[in-house]
């Protein structure tokens, strides 16, 4: 069996997750390679990119592939598409991120297992409007989302867009500055800001210490394992793509076999992606030092994955 599920009793008895437990569960959700058809290990969609920012969606997409997804689709603008295609022939790139071709997105989105919104998206008014339409479509399709970068800006500008998002939910991945902006926008009547959007939205804050916040208290955690003092541009995009692949595996693993399965899956996937990204950062830093860039981290995904989860 490719996945190991926790029984109902085991899940109900979880009170405080240890990081070593999270690592063990991550190992249990990694699918076996044998006997599978193309697509069974994940079809991931990346929505982002613009004429100014073509690297961000590439880093997110190629990381999802290198962690182990079978197919990754980048939905981007017409002028960014040929540039992103030139970076890698392994990515499927659709130039449909505009109001003229937005009608084609519904069918494409319906094929995805997990969708990442935000890398290199830009903040123009027409893109923000289209982003809200995409989120509403994903909500109706009950698609799990990872929202990062300019996707978080879109959420900040329209906080209610994720309110009561259906299971299997959303994981937000803000850095410290982005998290503070969201916290300040949450109505003051909420004592725990991350509960504003409902039970199916969780938050992974990135920084010197990564923290995972969930409305299900037993699944919260914080970690500063690995990493270095060098924070390269594009590192957050590597995390978002990795997270999408782990999120899909964790959901398919049904690791709790009860109502706790989704928050547990979000917690495990967030830990797995954060730990892997930090491990890639440290490995690359040990080679390149201050000169390390995000492309160097991509080269370390295979070795870091083997070291952490195989």
UniProtKB/TrEMBL annotation:
It comes from the Eukaryota. Residues 21-308 form the YjeF C-terminal domain. Its EC number is 4.2.1.93. CDD domains: YXKO-related. Keywords: ATP-binding, Lyase, NAD, NADP, Nucleotide-binding. The keyword Lyase applies. It catalyses: (6S)-NADPHX + ATP = ADP + phosphate + NADPH + H(+). Pfam families: Carb_kinase. HAMAP family: NADHX_dehydratase. This is ATP-dependent NAD(P)H-hydrate dehydratase. The lineage of its organism: Eukaryota, Metazoa, Ecdysozoa, Arthropoda, Hexapoda.
């Amino acid at each position: 069996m490719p996945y190991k599920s926790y029984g109902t009793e085991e899940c109900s008895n979880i009170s405080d997750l240890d990081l070593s437990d999270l690592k063990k569960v991550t190992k249990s959700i990694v699918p076996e390679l044998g006997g599978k058809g193309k697509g069974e290990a994940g079809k991931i969609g990346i929505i982002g990119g613009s004429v100014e920012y073509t690297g961000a969606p590439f880093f997110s997409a190629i990381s999802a592939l290198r962690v182990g997804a079978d197919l990754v689709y980048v939905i981007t603008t017409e002028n960014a598409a040929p540039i992103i295609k030139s970076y890698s022939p392994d990515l499927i790139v659709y130039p449909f991120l505009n109001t003229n071709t937005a009608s084609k997105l519904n069918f494409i989105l319906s094929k995805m297992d997990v969708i990442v919104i935000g890398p290199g998206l830009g903040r123009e008014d027409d893109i923000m409007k289209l982003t809200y339409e995409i989120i509403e479509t994903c909500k109706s399709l009950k698609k799990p989302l990872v929202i990062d970068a300019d996707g978080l800006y879109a959420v900040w500008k329209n906080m209610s867009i994720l309110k009561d998002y259906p299971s299997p939910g959303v994981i937000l991945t803000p850095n410290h500055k982005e998290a503070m902006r969201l916290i300040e926008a949450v109505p003051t009547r909420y004592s725990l800001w991350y509960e504003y959007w409902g039970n199916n939205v969780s938050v992974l804050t990135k920084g010197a210490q990564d923290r995972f916040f969930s409305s299900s208290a037993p699944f919260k955690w914080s970690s500063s394992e690995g990493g270095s003092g060098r924070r390269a541009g594009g590192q957050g995009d590597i995390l978002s793509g990795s997270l999408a692949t782990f999120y899909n595996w964790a959901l398919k693993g049904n690791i709790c076999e009860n109502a706790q399965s989704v928050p547990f899956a979000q917690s495990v996937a967030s830990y797995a992606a954060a730990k892997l990204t930090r491990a890639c950062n440290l490995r690359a830093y040990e080679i390149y030092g201050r000169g390390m860039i995000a492309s160097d981290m991509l080269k370390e995904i295979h070795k870091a994955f083997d070291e952490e989860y195989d």
